[in-house]
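Mods, move this if it's the wrong board.
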Amino acid sequence: MPFSISLILATVAILFLFTISSAAPTLGVRRPFNRIYAFGDSFTDTGNSRAGEGPAGFGHLSSFPYGMTYFKRPTNRYSDGRLTIDFVAQSMNLPFLPPYLSLRSTDGSNGTATDSYGVNFAVSGATVIKHAFFAENNLTLDMTPQSLETELGWFEKYLETLGANQKVSLFRDSLFWIGEIGVNDYAYTVGSTVSSDTIRELSMSTYTRFLETLLNKGVRHMVVQGHPATGCLTLAMSLAGEDDRDYLGCVQSVNNQSYTHNLALQFKLKQLRIKYPNATIVYADYWNAYREVIKNPTKYGISEKFKACCGTGEPYNFEVFQTCGSATATACKNPSRYINWDGVHLTEGMYKVVADMFLGGRFTRPKFSYLLNKKLKGL
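Not the wrong board. Structure tokens:
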């Protein structure tokens, strides 16, 4: 009895998910997507930020030991190596996505041949809500003027460099990966009179408009990451009192904030799936993926759940004004054994675990293989 087309497509999809190996594409291997376009903040930014930019206190990303594990040099990624988006690109047999601000054609405008496999518009410190909101409320901790509006503006300028047929192909054959974004919105309002409810309502409204703008342009395949368990990040652990802990040992108040945000996001995505039935919108459950590693660290090769690999000070190897890359900070010998890299951002090892969880389908709804199968049926 011959194999069914569904079984063949499923097998092809699975093969793509096990190609995470190198930055260079493998010749002769068919790609499920010709391009990836990424948006988000420092968890996804592959170089749109430089030293002295990005979130306050984390201005050393152009200095060693950032990039020590894979690239052996700083690449303006907030990690010791690759990020989740890098592993996603590799799994699709695509090269690493160039940051938008690195693209320059001969006439000085953005866009060049090097962006033929996609572009990364994510930028560190970015918020969902416009920068003006934070400025108007005197929230001076916000050192980064970029927001989702900025990233969408960059994308619009990028589209201007393409012809009509190129745009049609872009939306039909590309994967749009919306990395985690919005944690900064909450962080910038800590200690202010602006409530979490206000931030959630404003960010959901802005975020929905952003997604609808992409969907109205014709985006067919989209992955949207939720917030991780932010109460388990080293920064939160170091600032919160010991009486503010959940059963995992993380900061309960901060985790509750992220949990509530993710519920609101999932509700919005459910509405968008109904409104845009021709698009496949996958929710990447960063919250539960992160918590899974906290619950079973040894299963994923992790021995240190809360302490930062790179930093200084006790008990978490983290000091707000002496972060990774500063003169007093040092890096651990084996970052892959740590979840956290510099107090906020994750190690390459943790990013790979998360990528495997997303691509393998355990923490995506619907499963990522469902999105791949729909794409492959259209090839």
